[in-house]
Amino acid sequence: MDDSLVSDILAALGSVHNSKTSNQDRLRAQAYLESLKGHPQTAICGYNLAKSESNYDFTVRHFGLSLLQNAILVCPEGDWETGRTLTDHIVEIAKNISDSDPYFLKEKVVVLWTHLAKRFWEAQEWSEMDNLLFSMYKSSNATRLLVLGILRNLFEDVFLLDDAIASANSARLTAQCIEIATPVATLEQLYSDRNPAVVVLRSNDQGWLMTFSHILTSCISDTSDASASLAIKALEAVKASLLWVAVKAIIQADILPLTCQYLSHPNPKVRILAIDCLHILVTRHYSNDDDFSALIGVVFLPESLNSFSNIISAISVDPDVIDEDSYSFLKKVVETVVSLADHYTVVKRRFSGPVNLNSYLDLVLQTTAHPSLLVSHLSLPFWSNLLRLTEPITDSSETELVRRLLVLSSKRILNYESVREDNETMRFLDLDFDTKVERQNFLNEYERAVIDVVRLSTCRHPFESLAWIRENVNSVFANWSAPAGLDCSGSVLPKSDPSCIMAIAQFTMTEAALRGIDRWKVWYTEPDKDTEFQNLSSFIVSWCVELLNIPIRQPVLVKKYIKTLVLFTPYLSETSDILFKVLEKCLDACIFDLPENSNEELTKTVHDIRSSCGVEINRLAYLIPGTLNKFYDDLDRVVSDLVSNKLSNHESVILYAFLLVVSQRCNSDHKVARFEKVVDPILSKWQSEPVIKMVSSLTGFMEEIGIPQIGEYFNYRGVQDFSDLLAAPMDENGRILKSQLQDHWSSLFLARPTRIFIQYTIEKLDHSSSEYLDLLNLWKPRVQALLPYLLQLLKQISAFCSPESWEGFSSEVKTFLQQSCTERFWQAGLSNQSKDEFLQQHESASKTLQDFADSLGTIVRYTREYSYLALSSVSQLDDVLYEIPGVGREFAEALTGIPSGITFHSCRHMISLIIRPLIRNCSANYVIPFLGEFLPYSLRQIEKVIDKFKGSEISDEAHDITEVDKENLTDQIMEEHQFLQLTHATCRLLLDINNVQVPFSENEFSDYDEDLSSSKGSSKEKYLIGCHEGVLGAFLQLCKKLLVLPDNRSVLTTAYALRDAIPKIPIAVWGDVDEYLVFQILPICFTIIQERKNGDSAHEVEYVITLIFARFAKSNGAVGLKELFQGLIPSLSENVWNDLEVQLDRAPNLKQKRGVVVQFLTVNGQIEWTERLEQEMQKDRRKQLKLAAKSAWLPKSSRAPDPDEYLDEGLTNLFTE
């Protein structure tokens, strides 16, 4: 090796690591060091720098290992001469590792050895690897630890992680790892015919699993740090083995008793690794009863369960002074206990020992009652699954178990977000979650799980459960401790009041119980079902009467109270007087009066009550339409009275919808007349002169919404500066004008009542039912008549929001329109003010002339979104919309025709509320006529909206940021947030488009390449993107746009979409598509995997690259395809291409094809192995290991297969896809 080269390397490394080096010199030195990876003397240079005899410092030795790593990765496939040289270098370095070498150096050697094993370990090349490992294991403590690390890494890469190189060689590596890990006696017992080429690779008869067992046995009584370090390495290797090694080998090695002993080890890391191993053992599948008894049955023995209980009780976790290791250990122990539930129903049948299932249930209940909700939640799914079983679930009284579950549930069904009490549970919540969003999501999930336990308990034991819950509810309200009382005669209580929290919890328990009875009606099939149901109904009716007599008027309780009462109504059909009392309560809530001296929060609460109770009264109509229809005329009079005297136009729509649902969901001779009476007065307004004027032109739109009147009023007030309307207070004339405009707007903007009438009438109706077909006949002529007006309205709204449409208007009008179209949001963690400050600012603005701009902007945005919803409802009316000729293009232009008038926020809503429903609801016969017109135009317009995002330019000089700068910075952050929400919605749209199928005849060949697909597609399917070049072109252009965004989630989802789409594209049919995939998509993909900013995204993009390569490899020499690739990768010679084709054809599945392609790209320089890429790969590896640790929670079908289940297929077939 050239001495000057070494000198240059040392000088460059010195510059990089010297803190006094300038940035320019450091970058120059780094560039030089990276350039060395292409040097012809890379391998020998790396070896001489890395070996211990060189006496270089650790940073130099580490760099030498990096050079060796690059040489390994770029070593061509089949070049064993170079491979032998590299293995000799690494073996020599590994043999001389010492205790004094730092951890990062040892781990680098582990990584390099693993790389070599994945590439070269086989009988024809590096057959002595296992002998070398065993020799090093016996050599010294340092090499022993190194060997355990090598085996751990190798097993993880082959069996647990999505490693590309291991996948490419999975058949060989799987068989070889099983061979060296398993005792010979076990293999001979399991396999009658072992492969000699694999047998020759092992160094001894005992196998590595037995070696790990010996280490653990020797370390169990030694609590020294050195012993703990060795035990940790051994447990890590065991953990990497347990999912795939033969069960009989696990039993022979005494892994179960050893790991159980280590649960009480003083070292916390040892304890956690031990419980990880035990968790894997109890979640594996055991097909043999003897194996089951040895590894699962013994865990159900009373002494074993008692040990678990003692361990849980002994773990002291104080949320005020948290010990993270102990808390993590506790959660893992609880997970393991709950995981035994997989075997709960079969353990007595498969194991002959003295199993006491009640002891196990007591143990699980102990974990459910833990003050940490995170720990408690781990066992809640177990109770739900247990209660769903049809056979007996305990050895004694089930009713006692159900009672204990109900008692615990009643204490845990609280709305913890409202709790202000400082207790242990709340302190654990503060500890467990960093953000409000995470905490809220968890609490919602926890509440659903508790509700499910109550629901299923009631279903299983209805009389006992209802009686207990009823008594508990009565007890709570009898002892109501709120000073103001239930009827709100005193002060109004906040939702954080403990009495209110407890009262809401009782309503939630009641709802869950009633839903349990709904399930009982389906689940219970005994002969006495009718009698039992009559008894239950009588009980429920009397309970409803008790609840009706509770004088609840507290605003925070009314909403939940009404929702609970509505659930009683299916049982009140024979007691009309009680039913009318419930209906009266609902109607009273719809006109709930605002208490005196109400603040803004209470005002909002009351509005929410009136709105939500309107929804509940419609739920009542869904539940018992036939019963209510008997009193339709009385209901009509009551609704007419309320609409005339007590409800606004906005609120009255819900009650009209109630009448509509009642009249249309039952058999009646008056259905058509009642439909016309409610619907036609609203729909006829679409053809009124003001509405026609409004939708015909932008000028007419602005005139009808009141721009001239507002301008005249501003002139009257002498307003000169339209950009500072906050400075001008609202006077009485302004308030009168605003009220007049709002009344006028309610008569103009008809999208909301149209949407509500359509959606409420058809909601959850079977499309083959007579009710739905009758409604379809009524809606069809009306909807097709109003559709042009609705589409024109959307066009005018887009024009109103587009600055490009304001040419010719005065500067004052432009300023006012700009303020009206400005979207204002508050987002936790993004806004530079609190929510209260934001609301206060809004309230202050409402008292100034700014309220005109805000109110106008709000009604326009509100109308736009309700128009989307109305069109979405129309799309659910079978083919009513789709059968109109040319309507696809009309929809596209109305929705996306003016991109400058579509904000990120509104575009996200447009995609979610109307475009995706249009795709989902389009029947196969109209896919080409409608979506073929709609999608190409719409996707390109959405791309223009995405193009408007310019990104943030944030100054580095944070200390000089002014208040104005802070405001601008907040606006930029909010814009980025809205943009990301748009891109995520767009990605989901791409996934929808992928799945759109078109009809085709049985004798027609499919465009779906089943061999390359990872999804469950069938060759008997044909997809839109595979038969419509226009849709495909727009789809691919949008994918390219999303792939270059600096957002990992968008890149990941787009890669999913491309991965699913490419096999559906016909091969060598559309030349432009082929060129686009190669010259536009592939270079972006190469950049993503080179930068590797996110491991998940890079993995999926690697699959996209693989599919493109494999797609063209399957083209059977189609003219021009190889030339395309050679234009992209000049080094791709004919021989290299042919070799790649052979390897791709040989790889049996997509995962192994990916390994072939990634290896090819690395060898041919498309993936340049930089130090930064290595760091990202290691980070990705750690992330995958965390996910792999959770794999035992997946369904059995998703886990790695059990070798014992595949005895007849031979070693080489194990663990392949």
Descriptive notes:
The chain has 1217 residues and is mainly alpha-helical. The protein has a domain at 669-878. The longest helix is centred in the C-terminal third of the chain and has 32 residues, at 963-994. Mean pLDDT is 86; it is low at 952-966, 1002-1008, 1014-1019 and 1192-1217.
Name the descriptors:
nuclear export signal receptor activity, Exportin-5 C-terminal domain-containing protein, mainly alpha, globular, single chain, disordered C terminus, 1217 residues
Which whole number gives the mean pLDDT? 86
**Rg computed from alpha carbons, rounded to a whole number of angstroms:** 35 Å
Report the count of strand segments: 0
Task: Assign an overall shape.
Answer: globular
Helix and strand composition category: mainly alpha
* Helix proportion: 55-70%
Number of helices: 58
Given as residue ranges, the uncertain stretches (5+ residues, pLDDT < 50) are 952-966, 1002-1008, 1014-1019, 1192-1217
* Cα-to-Cα separation, first versus last residue: 46 Å
For the report, how would you describe the main beta sheet? none
Strand fraction: under 5%
GO molecular function: nuclear export signal receptor activity; RNA binding
Region (Disordered): 1194-1217
Protein name: Exportin-5 C-terminal domain-containing protein
Domain Exportin-5 C-terminal: 324-1167
